[in-house]
Amino acid sequence: MARLATGKARTLGGGRKAWTARLDAPTARYSRYRVHFEEPVEDEWVWTTRSPRENTHEAAMALFVETEAWLDGVRDHAPARSAVESSRVVYDGPE
């Protein structure tokens, strides 16, 4: 696994070990770039993975920066999963 970027160390309190978001390059096992981070699900934080829509280094770095901004509180929501992005319909107004 080739790690391309590592975010800043974060703690969630409660004596838990610090963790960092990370960006991994494609490997023989995984053909896509992947950003790993923890996000809140109900009453706990769980590890999750997001891949950029376009499987390029630039798109992966943009997703990593977006994820770090969300974790820092700059953004109000986590980056959407690729499946969610591709299913969204853009509303252009009345036809």
What does this protein look like?
By secondary structure, the chain is an alpha+beta fold. The protein has a domain of 48 residues. It is built from two helices and four strands. Strand 3 and strand 4 form a beta hairpin. The longest helix has 15 residues. The radius of gyration is 15 Å and the shape is globular.
Descriptive tags:
4 strands, 95 residues, alpha+beta, four-stranded antiparallel β-sheet, 23% strand
Main sheet specs:
4 strands, antiparallel
From the alpha-carbon coordinates, what is the Rg to the nearest angstrom? 15 Å
Order of strands side by side in the largest beta sheet? 1-2-3-4
The coarse overall form would be: globular
Strand content: 15-25%
Provide a count of the helices: 2
Question: What structural category arises from helix and sheet content?
Answer: alpha+beta
Low-confidence stretches: 83-91
Question: Roughly how many Å apart are the termini?
Answer: 49 Å
Mean pLDDT: 79
Strand/helix succession: EEEEHH
**Extended strand count:** 4
* Helix fraction by DSSP (H/I, runs of at least 4): 10-25%
Which helices and strands, and how do they pair?
Layout (H helix, E strand, L loop, with lengths): L2 E4 L15 E3 L9 E8 L2 E7 L6 H15 L10 H6 L8
Antiparallel strand pairs: 1-2, 2-3, 3-4
Short summary of the structure?
The protein is built from two helices and four strands, in the order E-E-E-E-H-H. With 95 residues, it is an alpha+beta fold. The chain has a four-stranded antiparallel beta sheet with strand order 1-2-3-4, with helices on one face.
